Amino acid sequence: MPIIESNYKPLFWTKSGFVSTVFSGLARKVNGVNQIRERITLPDTDFLDLDWSYAEKPSQKCIILLHGLEGHAQRPYLTGAAKLFNQNRIDACAVNFRGCSGEPNLLYRSYHSGATEDLAAVVNHIVSLDKYEEIYIKGISLGANMALKYVGEEREVPKQIKTVIAISAPCDLKGSCDELLSLKNKAYAIRFLDHLKQKLKPKLEQFPDKISVADYKSIKTLVDFDHVYTSKAHGFIDAYDYYDKASSLQFLPYIKVPSLVINALNDSFLSSGCFPVKEAKNNSNLHLEMPKYGGHVGFIQKGEFYYNEMRALDFINKL
């Protein structure tokens, strides 16, 4: 599919990638979304909490919303989408990844960028409700990589899955991690690492046979975290093996579901490998939009809803 020319026109003060990223992440407020929590049990006995919001009238359409690193279902980038889709007669299922719903998960493992087994569990659960004829998936950042990987892997995607929308997708995890560790993103990296270590700390007492205090104290960077915890807890050799196997880039050629990737050119979290131009040109199901502005999960515009939310709805309506 040829590269899509973006129609995103930022407000003057949001042309800065930094401003767009920070404002949308810390200052945006979304009101009026009534979420109802459902807990599902996973095949490995752990759990996921799903926060549902519904259209005014019964709907046969549902969108699954996936958050980013250390996010949750109440983040404005999910509730904003949920509100817009609810207003357009589509139910929304906002997924809290393991340990992200305000309650620690049960197992030593948690979530990561490539944990498509958990997304598959959510999809299968929703399909089993026998309520929705059409299911869409919209992922943000980490969730975007997961969504793309899910539909590109060797699996039979349920016929109800009609499309994927991936926003600020770090398709190349190693490249994205390198960007996060660069000086320009130091503040973000510190914030992410602090959240991750706080969440990991209780596992020292719960699972002393799997991680030691010395291991914990050795974590100084995001790569260290992935070396010590993410890789070992999820069956990878080390951080680099995790980045290699969990990156969605390698799965993009095999996507058979219409998918839209929106990655801003001024997104400081994304490396050059996160802009899959070749893959989009060679796969008629993969639509790549690269706005000049937008930052990381920004895309601020006038009105209540952000550009990526309106664009996602438009993409679905035009299928």
Question: How does the SSE layout of this entry go?
Answer:
Elements (H helix, E strand, L loop, with lengths): L16 H11 L8 E6 L5 E7 L7 E6 L9 H12 L3 E6 L19 H13 L5 E7 L1 H11 L8 E7 L5 H8 L5 H15 L2 H4 L6 H5 L4 H12 L5 H8 L12 E4 L14 H6 L3 E4 L17 H11 L2
Which key terms come to mind for this protein?
Rossmann fold, 8 strands, globular, 2 domains, 8-stranded mixed sheet, alpha/beta, serine esterase, AB_hydrolase_4_CS, 319 residues
Q: Would you mind describing this structure in some detail?
A:
- This protein is an alpha/beta fold and 319 residues long.
- The chain has 2 domains: 240 residues, Alpha/Beta hydrolase fold, catalytic domain (Rossmann fold); 73 residues, no CATH class.
- 36% of the residues lie in helices and 15% in strands.
- It is built from 12 helices and 8 strands.
- Strands 1-2-4-3-5-6-7-8 form an 8-stranded mixed β-sheet, sandwiched between helices.
- Helix 2 links the parallel strand 3 and strand 4.
- Helix 3 packs across helix 4 and helix 9 crosses helix 10.
- It is globular and about 55 Å long.
- The protein starts with 16 loop residues before the first helix and ends with a helix.
- The mean pLDDT is 97.
